[in-house]
Write a structure and sequence with these properties.
The protein is an alpha/beta fold. The protein has helices at 12-27, 31-38, 42-49, 57-67, 72-81, 89-96, 117-129, 135-149, 166-170, 176-191, 239-255, 259-273; strands spanning 101-106, 159-165, 195-200, 213-217, 223-228, 233-236. The protein has two domains: 12-81, lambda repressor-like DNA-binding domains (434 Repressor (Amino-terminal Domain)), CATH 1.10.260; 89-273, Endonuclease, Chain A. Helix 10 (176-191) packs antiparallel against helix 12 (259-273).
Length: 274
């Protein structure tokens, strides 16, 4: 039988199809046999293996179950659905959605977990005007923001520790109305029983982190981190490397403004915006 060979370096879709076929070949299964185990048609399996159809989350999760690969295929498939975001972020988001605790530090702009739709849209449209993303990717970014925020209202939401550089609340994004709504959401976020909000004031000088940073504690207490540069993100799953970052984050929290003082500063900025 002639088989279409895929170059896994060509695209995320090709990489997924190549990996799916390799896992099937390792077990000596035909496409019909895999299809029967997964509850999909052999035609569907063939289309994904040859890159003619992208895998859905349901398909990837089913493949993980059949092959015993944990959630690796599901995480790999997420890269296909989030082509407009930085490398490393899709994998991080699969853990953020199930985290027991989330610690984050943001510089310059509000973090996605608390962006209003209007604020997120302004940022996406700005990237579009610069030619950094396509219209489809701009729409995807805004949708992703909404999906991420669902983790804050799930039945057992995570504890969220958020430290924002003062520039996040002072940078005027989208004009007075957009900023007023965004700052109001920030104040409401601080009132939640599972959140702690702090502002790292300009007076701290160089002591805060220079780049956005996220640290996730899983339900089994394992640690993971995600950090961003201008052009890519780095996801770290090895706790040995995350522990020093967590220690530095605790020091940042100790030096940042307490929550009451942080909310007072936000409200002070709101008076100047309105």
């Amino acid at each position: 039988m002639n088989r279409k060979e895929l170059d896994p370096e060509k695209s995320p879709k090709a990489a997924f199809g190549h990996r799916l076929r390799a896992l099937r070949d390792e077990r000596g299964w035909t496409q019909d046999e895999l299809a029967e185990r997964m509850g999909f048609s052999a035609t569907h399996i063939s289309a994904i293996e040859t890159g003619r159809r992208p895998p859905t989350r349901r398909f990837a999760a089913g493949a993980d179950r059949v092959f015993g690969t944990g959630d690796r295929l599901e995480r790999q498939s997420s890269a296909l659905r989030h082509t407009g975001v930085l490398e490393g972020l899709p994998e991080y988001l699969t853990y953020e959605a199930r985290a027991a605790e989330i610690r984050l530090y943001e510089v310059g702009v509000m973090p996605g977990l608390i962006q209003t739709p209007e604020y997120a849209t302004v940022l996406a449209q700005s990237a579009l005007k610069r030619g950094a993303i396509t219209p489809e990717q701009a729409e995807e970014r805004v949708q992703l923001i909404a999906e991420r925020q669902a983790t804050l209202v799930r039945p057992q939401p995570p504890l969220v520790f958020m430290v924002l550089d003062e520039g996040c609340i002072r940078r005027n994004v989208g004009g007075p109305e957009v900023m007023e709504a965004q700052l109001a959401r920030l104040v409401e976020f601080a009132k939640l029983p599972n959140t702690v909000l702090q502002i790292a004031p300009f007076s701290m000088g160089e002591r805060p982190f220079s780049l956005p940073l996220y640290v996730v504690t899983r339900q089994d207490r394992a640690l993971m981190s995600y950090a961003e540069s201008a052009h890519r993100g780095h996801f770290e799953r090895e706790s040995t490397f995350v522990l020093p970052i967590l220690a530095a984050y605790h020091q940042l929290q100790a030096e940042a403004l307490p929550q009451a003082a942080s909310v007072a500063l936000i409200n002070q900025v709101r008076e100047g915006v309105s």
